[in-house]
Amino acid sequence: xxxxxxxxxxxxxxxxxxxxxxxxxxxxxxxxxxxxxxxxxxxxxxxxxxxxxxxxxxxxxxxxxxxxxxxxxxxxxxxxxxxxxxxxxxxxxxxxxxxxxxxxxxxxxxxxxxxxxxxxxxxxxxxxxxxxxxxxxxxxxxxxxxxxxxxxxxxxxxxxxxxxxxxxxxxxxxxxxxxxxxxxxxxxxxxxxxxxxxxxxxxxxxxxxxxxxxxxxxxxxxxxxxxxxxxxxxxxxxxxxxxxxxxxxxxxxxxxxxxxxxxxxxxxxxxxxxxxxxxxxxxxxxxxxxx
Length: 291
What we know:
Low-confidence stretches: none
Largest sheet: 8 strands, antiparallel
Number of helices: 10
Order of helices and strands: HHHHHHHHEEHEEEEHEE
Strand content: 15-25%
CATH superfamily of the largest domain: Regulatory factor, effector binding domain
Strand order of the largest sheet: 1-6-8-7-3-4-2-5
Shape: globular
Number of strands: 8
CATH class of the largest domain: Alpha Beta
Mean pLDDT: 94
Number of domains: 2
CATH topology of the largest domain: Multidrug-efflux Transporter 1 Regulator Bmrr, Chain A
CATH architecture of the largest domain: Alpha-Beta Barrel
Distance between the termini: 44 Å
Radius of gyration: 20 Å
């Protein structure tokens, strides 16, 4: 078994058992490696220690719970992150992110948060790239999509500030009684953040509605996904797994098909949400509109 495959198994095991005790003995057994050398081999592969990686995963979930799920108390969030009390959680959180959990809940410093979480993102991207190099393929389904009217908050600017827009959109949905259980959730994807200047980045947050909205002070606008045929791929897991699917559709599937893209952006439909479900159980469908 190649080292890439061994450590990919470890990363998947960590995500699927994040609330359990994750010991060196357990993780080295997953990798089929000696426990005496596992930590050094993991660090050499990803540039981050395995327990640091686990801590970042748990704190990422805690951060999303603080920012997006204000029904959860600080104590509940800290317990969910594996801390015995809220005080030790707060000390760790403040040391890493420069804000106490209560302050982060009110007004997160998303730039600082992304700076800290960059190692987590890079590790996952490396795993996804390794999978892509092994010629990963995806099951593509052609589906008729009905015309769908959306209430949209347009995020414009650095991707690192998307969290602030998400908070604003969640607050608007809550105030207008449009939870995801009643109103389907969509994202319109205009730009690739890897090749787009941060100030030019565009990303829409949308909720399905039955009728057009009146002008409002929250910046919510009306948009419509047209009725069309779409190439659809279902993704289960964290959002870092979405970019390889998009690349596959444009670079491999579309050129090999007899299809042409519609003059409308690619979009996502969010079916199961992190942190409401564990990240490895989040479900997103990727839609490429076709002529």
